[in-house]
Amino acid sequence: MELPLIRIINSGNLSTLQAVCRFGFSDFGIPKSGFQDSISAYLANWLVGNKRFNTLIESYANYFEFEVINDCSMGVQGACSEIRINGQSVSLDQAHHLRVNDRIQLFNNTHGAILYLAMSGGFTATEVLGSKATDTANGLGGLNGLPLASQDILKGSRFNMPRQTRSIPKGLSSRGYFSKNVTVHVIAGPEAYLFTKEIIDNFYSYAFLLSAEISRVGYRLTGYPIHADSYNIPSKTVLPGTIQIPPSGDPIILMADGPVTGGYPRMGVVARVDQPILAQLRPGGRVRFLACLPEEARLREANQRQWIEELYHKKTER
Amino acid sequence: MGSIKWRYLGEDAIEISDISSSIHVQLGLRDYLKGFPELGIASFMLTDKTLTLISQKCGFMSVSHIIDRVAVYQHKVNENVRLPLRIIPICYDEAFALDQRKLEDICKLDYEEIIALHLNAEYTVAMFGFMPGFPYLNGLPLSLSIPRLKIPRKIIPKGSVAIANEMCGIYPNQTPGGWHIIGRSPLSLFDPSKDVMPLNLGQRVKFERILKKDFDGITFN
Questions:
Q1: How far is CA B181 from its chain centroid?
Q2: pTM for the whole thing?
Q3: Is residue B162 one of the residues assigned to a domain?
Q4: Chain A closest CA to B213's CA: distance in Å?
Q5: Block mean pLDDT (10 aa), chain B, length 221
Q6: Is B130 on the interface with A (CB under 8 A)?
Q7: Is A144 in CB contact (< 8 Å) with chain B?
Q8: Architecture of domain A181-305
Q9: Same domain, yes or no, for B38 and B96?
Q10: Residue B206 domain flag
C-alpha cells in the first residue's frame, strides 16, 4: 500500500530520488543516471531490508531535515556525520524505526559529499524508460523529473519493514573511503594518443583540485591544465567516469547524468570500482589518477561486488 | 573487414573504429552482433564510423571473441533496400532562423538560396547524442558546411533546426548550444512517455517548408 512517508523541511543541495539506472537508451541520447556512489546506496538500502536498487534519496546536503508522516524504517549511509531524531543524536550505521511526527536531522561534516537516505520499501517515483532514477540533465524520472525541494512529500510502500534492526558490519561503513585526497584508477581512453608522453606522465602524477563546478552531470578539475595535440575530433561515445580534456585544459569527469556523446579528447575512464570514491570527493579536495588495465579494474570490481553480494545474501531475520 | 581497429572505453566497453562511413554497414554490423547474445553486449552506440559495445555488468568475458566476430562480418550492401523516409516540417521565418544574418555572411549566399540548398538535400540519421532525441543528420550540402559558433548560445529554443560542420541537427528541447540556427520545426522529437521515438538510426529525412502562420497549427502524434 502506498502512503505518504515524509515531508522534506530542508532539502539541502542537489537532492534527488535515485534507483537502478536507465540502461539501454544511450543510442537515443539518454544518460544512465542512477546512484553515483553505488556502495553507499546499496548499504543504505540493505539497512532497511530493501533490494539494492530500491529508490532512495541521494543528496549533496550538508544539512537535510524532514518530518515523518507515517511510521517507517530509515537507513542512512554515505556522507553523514550525525543523525538526530527529535533532537537526540543516534548511531549512524544502523537502521532506525521512525514514528509519525518524528523530526529527523542529518548533518554532514565528513570529507564525503553525498549522503543516501533509504526507507523500508523504497520511495515512490515516476518510471521513465524503465527507470525511476532522476535524470537532472533532462528532467526524467524521480519526482516529476526535478531535484527535491523543501515541502515535497515523498510517498512509499512500507513493504519489508524489518523486525530486526540491522547494523552495518564493522569496517564496511561507506565513510571509510572518504578523504580530502583520493587516488582513482583510470583506464587509458581512446584519444590518449592525442597527448604527448610527457603530458600523459604529468596527468598521472598531478594531484588535481576538484573545483566548485560539480553536479550529477560532471565534475571539473583544475590546477594543472592539460593540452592535447588536436581537438579536432568528431563526437564519440562517453560514459560516466570518462575524463574529457576540453581546450581550456581543465579536465571534466562525466558523472551519472552526463551526456552520451562528447567531442573532446577522452584521456581515460575512471574504473567503475573507484567511481564512488570520486563521486564522494568534495570541492577543494584533490584527486590523483593511477593508470590501470581493464583486467585489473574488473578484478577490483569483482571483489567489491562480492562483499556486497555476501552481505545481501546473508540470511538475516526480518 | 580486414584488420580491426578497437580500443577500450573503460573496462566495460570497447569501441570498434574506422568501420565504414555507410550507415548501412554500421547498422548491419550492430544487428549482426546482436545475433550473438553469448558475447555479452548489452547496448550499442553508433557515432562517427565507430561502434561502441557496452557490457552491462562485469565487462566482456572475451573481447577476442567479439573481435573475431567483427572480423568475419561481411556486409552485403543491397542498395535496393532503402531506409524509410521521414518528412520533417520546418519554418525558416526570421523569428525562428536566429542565425539568418550570420549564415548569409559566412556562406556568402542569400537566405532563399540557403533555404533551397537545405530543402533539396536528403539526410540520414547518423547518430543520436548531446541530449535525448537529438539527431545528427548526415547529408548537409558542402556549401552550408560551416564551423560551430565561437561562443555557444545560452538558450536555443525547442525545435530549432541547426547546422554545424557537415551535420544538421534538431534540438528536441531548450538547451544551450553552439550550432547555427537555420529554422524551427514543430515536430516533437522526444516524448519520454512514449516508447516509440519519431526518428530512428539510419532513417532518411527530408525537410518540408511551412509558413509561420501554419507553425502552431501542426501537431503530431
A1: 16
A2: 0.91
A3: yes
A4: 30
A5: 85 93 88 93 92 85 91 73 85 96 95 97 92 94 90 92 94 92 93 79 94 78 39
A6: yes
A7: no
A8: Beta Barrel (2.40)
A9: no
A10: yes
Q: What b-and-e string marks burial along A235-272, b requiring 16 or more CB atoms within 10 Å of the CB?
A: bbbbbbbbbbbbeeebbbbbbbbbbbbbbbbbbbbbbb
CA pair distance A120, B130, nearest whole angstrom: 37
- Joined together, the cell numbers standing for residue B155 give 538558450
* Cβ–Cβ contact A271 with B under 8 A: yes
Residue ranges, comma separated, of all CATH 2.40.100.10 domains in chain A are 181-305
Record: contact B129-A29, CB cut-off 8 A:
yes
Task: Give the rounded distance of the alpha carbon of A75 from its chain centre.
Answer: 16
Supply A283's cell numbers.
Answer: 570541492
Q: How far apart are CA A89 and CA A82, in angstroms?
A: 7
Task: Give the per-residue pLDDT at A315.
Answer: 58
> How would you classify residue B195: left for phi > 0, otherwise alpha for psi between -120 and 50, otherwise beta?
alpha
Distance of CA A113 to the CA centre of its chain: 9
What residues of chain A score a pLDDT lower than 50?
A: 317-318
Q: Residue A311: enclosing H or E segment and its boundaries? A: helix A294-313
Is the CB of B58 less than 8 angstroms away from the CB of A190?
A: no
Interface check for B18 against chain A (CB to CB < 8 A): the answer is no
Indicate the pairing of strand A3-10 with strand A153-156. antiparallel
> Residue B66 maps to which CATH number?
3.30.1360.40
